[in-house]
Design a protein that fits this description.
mainly alpha, 0% strand, 233 residues, elongated
Length: 233
């Protein structure tokens, strides 16, 4: 109800708004609906994109393209997602926006992985990791490590995947990120299971389960769950 009221208030401002404000308002409304109503979010980001392209505002165009790309990724439209994310990335790179560039790289890596294009997936995921280190963003670095590990899992390269999941676990532990630790423990456990080291797998699964219980997490599932990484778009 609160979200609907906030979005309605913003919609009421669209009628008399100048082009720049129209873009920003559509972007804000899209962000409100990002999780709860993806179709509505997509509509408003597309509206913002149309105006930003009409007035040749590359910065706002890139921000809208990025959100559209994320929504398309979430809906499984990976080819469309890649097109939008790559367009956004080029603009972010030109403007020197390293943080948003890094986020685009992460999603591009994941989208290529979903398409089975593993060389490109690894390339983008490793680029994102390097940028995370440049930004000294340890949380995002752990996310990128998890993404690299996931690509190696897709290729059945379990030793390589295990190495990156262990690095992600170590980083999440340094950050005291409870959910990140639980996810990383689960991923490490999955790799030991794949490698038929069931005693180690059980140990890591139990540690992950304990973390989730302590955090009052719902929907705890047995078996391998590759990556519960939370990318902050």
């Amino acid at each position: 109800m609160l979200k609907t009221g906030k979005s309605d208030s913003l919609k009421n401002k669209l009628g008399d708004a100048q082009a720049l404000d129209v873009i920003k308002i559509n972007y804000r409304i899209g962000s409100i609906f990002l999780s709860s109503s993806p179709d509505s979010a997509l509509h408003y980001f597309n509206e913002g994109l149309k105006v930003s392209q009409r007035i040749h505002n590359d910065t706002l165009s890139a921000q809208c393209l990025n959100k559209i790309g994320i929504l398309k990724y979430n809906s499984g439209e990976y080819e469309t997602a890649i097109g939008n994310l790559y367009s956004a990335l080029k603009i972010f790179e030109r403007s020197g926006d390293k943080f948003r560039s890094m986020r685009c790289l992460q999603y591009l890596g994941m989208a290529y992985n979903e398409q089975g294009m593993y060389e490109k997936a690894i390339d983008f995921a490793k680029q994102s990791l390097e940028m995370c280190r440049t930004l000294d963003d340890k949380y995002s670095a752990a996310v990128s490590m998890g993404n690299i590990g996931s690509v190696y899992v897709s290729q059945a390269k379990y030793d390589e995947a295990l190495g990156y999941f262990q690095q992600a676990l170590q980083t999440m532990e340094e950050l005291h990120n409870k959910q990140g630790i639980a996810d990383a423990l689960n991923n490490v456990a999955g790799m030991y299971e794949k490698k038929n080291n069931l005693s180690k797998a059980l140990g890591f699964y139990l540690r992950s389960l304990a973390r989730k219980r302590n955090g009052h997490q719902q929907g705890i599932a047995a078996g391998i769950t590759i990556s519960g990484w939370c990318i902050k778009a």
